[in-house]
Amino acid sequence: MTATSEAPVTLRDWDLVREALRRKELRQALYDDGAAVMADCLLTLHGEAHRSRRRLENRLFRREVFTHWEREVLGATAEAALAPYVAAGRGDLVPIGYRTTMNLTALIAGIDRPARTPEETEHLYGIVRTFSEGATAVHSTRHPGELDAEVRRAMETFDEEFFTPSVERRRRLLDREARGDDVEVPADVLTTLLRNSDELDLPPEVVRREIAFYLQAGSHSTANAFTHTVDELFRYARSHPEAIDRATDDLWFAQRCVHESLRLNPASPVAWRRPLAGVTLSDGTSLAEGALVVLDLAAANRSADHFGASPGTFDPWRRPAPGVPAWGHSFGGGVHACVGTELDGGLECPDTGPGPDHLFGTVAIMVSTLLAHGGRPDPDQPPTSDRTTSRTHFSAYPVVFGPRTGAGA
User: Fold this and answer.
1) Euclidean distance between CA atoms 80 and 99, whole angstroms
2) Of 37, 191, 321, 334, which has the maximum CB count within 10 A?
3) Which residue range is the domain that position 81 belongs to?
4) Is the dihedral of CA 228, 231, 233, 236 positive or negative?
5) Model-level pTM?
6) For residue range 325-373, what is the model confidence (pLDDT) as tens digits?
7) Does some domain include residue 131?
């Protein structure tokens, strides 16, 4: 068959989706409606512009850097985010997830928070949530004009209160470094872009959107992965009550739960591509230049050939086919594979258990920390779905804290 610009083609087969993710003739197209946040950022670039920026930013996203963040930063960040909720005896997984991941992502992106007060965190949290809505505008159920105006106001506030002061501090440090002063310059995305601004020739507004992208992508996808994993684990524990204690005490098992939840609940259920020229896939499918190609990640991640029996069921002990990652296509593939895969999901879990250098990932540590404080579903307030988007997300997920019970509900 042949795709035209008027007739989108949807790919659901695991191998075809994998091929399409890796075909360089297919450009990213899902975030065109989210240009207020996403225009000219890493995820939407293609060709040489993408290669140059990714090569530069990859200097920051190295295994040893991830190891430092996981072992030296993340535990304290998760504990600090949980502390007020644990003290109150109840909370909500959605803001808990966002506040935990936002603090880590701000560090990675290069956004300073001089006050470090709960009020400042709440303010930045609100801005980043708006960026997330804007980036995923294609799936929003809100009026486009209303959402666009809200995103632009948030960007102006972000620029004035967070971005510009962070840029100015880094430029001063870089100037001192260039003069030979002994200064400690932050290792983050913003500093990397500023240090190499002549090479990349990036206008200030593109740098601002790139940092906004890192903030929203890191906090949004990770927070949702956290909430979905806890939900899957709570429901799994109804028939496997031992799973709660194990996920609390065994990060390797918690990580297996994360990978299985990521497979079933990808951050985006689909990826969109448009061919820059006519493309013929290995099965003979022809894609016309400019056609919309929908990669159904959620369907491909439920391939029985690749994930075994009952592929739509949550099973932390699932063994994918050889060469197939436990999280499926949820971190993408090809040139646009997620740069934070190891930070969020850690390394793949060997059946023999983790070695001394194993990375468990941000989400597994967040899940284990929540459970260690006796986090469990609020019996009086069930979770609710987010009706402002067609993506499968929660708008609220109330939990209570108390002594560990060993059961999910």
Assistant:
1) 10
2) 37
3) 2-399
4) negative
5) 0.90
6) 999 999 999 888 888 899 899 999 988 889 899 999 999 999 999 999 9
7) yes
